[in-house]
Protein 1
Amino acid sequence: MHAADGLATGVTLAEGPVLYVTDLSVGFGDKAVLQDAAVDFGRHTVNALIGPTGCGKSTFLRSLNRLNDKVSGYWRTGKIELDGVDIADDRLDPLVLRRRVGMVFQRPNPFPMSIRDNVVAGVRAHRMAPRRELGDIAEQRLRQVGLWPAVADRLGDSPFRLSGGQQQLLCLARALAVGPDVLLLDEPTSSLDPVTTEMVEALLAKLAASLTMVVVTHNLAQARRIADTTTFLYNGHLVESGPTADVFESPREPETASYVMGRMG
Ligand SMILES: Nc1ncnc2c1ncn2[C@@H]1O[C@H](COP(=O)(O)OP(=O)(O)O)[C@@H](O)[C@H]1O
Ligand SMILES: [Mg+2]
């Protein structure tokens, strides 16, 4: 049980997909970025999203927790369900949705507050724990991401003196602290050194015991290492989605074959 369970809205099914996407089209203004996409992401799985730059990976990912809602010109048709609840449902507060479906970006974005306060920022905002527990929660989450030894003696310091990799681990700790059901990660390791990348990959594998993850990656080897399923977006379409081994070793579509063989950007 994580700290957020008491606040979860809707019914959490014991098994089956967490996220169902059907007939999804998204775009900006008169341009469709992605048309008629259908995919689902199973409970406690790691799911890679691959495809050339500009194919709509970030737009798709950000649609899953309504992060694009306020972006000018953005539109969406079709349905995204989280545990059977339409995420566009008026009764689902977007802030609650984003607590349940967290996000980690390519560039680490610590808040301008202490390391400790960063970790518990969401816990505080959602009033998920009494003040006296915040220190323990910060420690627990920093340990979980492997950052504790490096920051234990400077929890009150600014995060901006940490290395890029450490900042990204801090952002992961912050995302995990609110106990999300789903974590969206947009190229989370593309700005990191190989050692931190390995740490993050190992962490994601461990998190799959309790979380569903959707990870955008440019690194095909990484998708193969960490993902249960892989989804390939290309040219405005979700071309193919399936078990990672199938998508890489026996893709159904020629475009997928071309991309995973490295013949297309
Ligand atoms: N805020 C926006 N306004 C208009 N067009 C956008 C916006 N964000 C992204 N796009 C366009 O949507 C398409 C997909 O972008 P994106 O989702 O960022 O692709 P990817 O993450 O796969 O590189 C691109 O053509 C991009 O120019
Ligand atoms: Mg992107």
Protein 2
Amino acid sequence: MKKLEKILKKNFFFKNDIVFLLSLKGEDCKKLFQKAREIKLKYIGNKVYYRGLIELSNNCIKDCFYCGIRKSNKKIERYFLNEKEIIESALFSYKNNYASIVIQSGEIQSENFSKKIENILKKIHQKTGGKFGITLSVGEQKKETYKRWLDAGASRYLLRIETTNKKLYKKIHPNDETHNFHKRLKYLKELQNLGYQTGTGVLIGLPFQTLEDLADDLLFFKSFDIDMVGMGPYIEHINTPLYKHSNLLLSKENRLELSLKMIAILRILMKDINIAATTAMQTLDENGHIKALMSGANILMPNTTPTNYKKNYLLYENKERTKDQARNVNKILEERVNSSGNKVCFGERGDSLHFFKRKKNPYLQ
Ligand code: SF4
């Protein structure tokens, strides 16, 4: 039996297995994707869930070297959606039967911000009869703030670790207490302990990153027992310090393919978690979302941010939706998802199945 077939029959992958799988090309790559699809069908079905994405603000106290909305980028116009705009966006998702939203923003740490989010959560919770799934992705916050937001109606939190290689983490962030790897891990643990469906993710194809680093990232998700993952290809932004290392990057096609392999391996490793087809994949390839679904992802995040703000939330360049002028984008997306053999599940929250199993396991309490 060939090495690939042997590995794909295993119940658990070691680091060298993962590195091997990440190196696959051509027909072998297709076998990996096929295996991931089979696992997805068996454990979570062909269902795809929508989360209406609201980009609340592009203000951020941080200065991550890869990010287009970092504090030091003076070339963008900063914005903060008002309460009415946020609630309208949430209700757009609710009325269109998405059943879930993601509220995302740069990192802002203040009592004023905490209070604003808390009020918004309460209002959305009340207007949607408490049935709506709300994910927050607004960075590192005090434990008591996370708890207040949980009590106000949020049930999921995404805090991306970006890379689990500490040396690489230091290379892509300023070396100070605001950008501390260990603190970030601590916040992620707090979210999990508080009872959030907890999500994280990494950048794929960073300069200086190796396949061994990515294998460690996947094993980290497994050992942390994460419920959701949002990961995608690194896309360079000209107004960031990391841009000067663009000569070290894989081609965009190869970064996309590597991201698809990451998704497929993760699906095999963690059969019942939620995995997002991220916007970055769509940016590299207009069929990127669908390819991600065909490799094991099950979550899509249509953008519901008011159109006039979207152009200012560019974490990386050439973000797909800025080209999206069509009003019927959602209809097109639904048709494309359904014709790929998947099915958009309107009206279902699509919570992480893994989360509920984890909660029932007395050894993990
Ligand atoms: S990656 Fe997140 S925390 Fe870092 S600068 Fe961008 S928005 Fe801020």
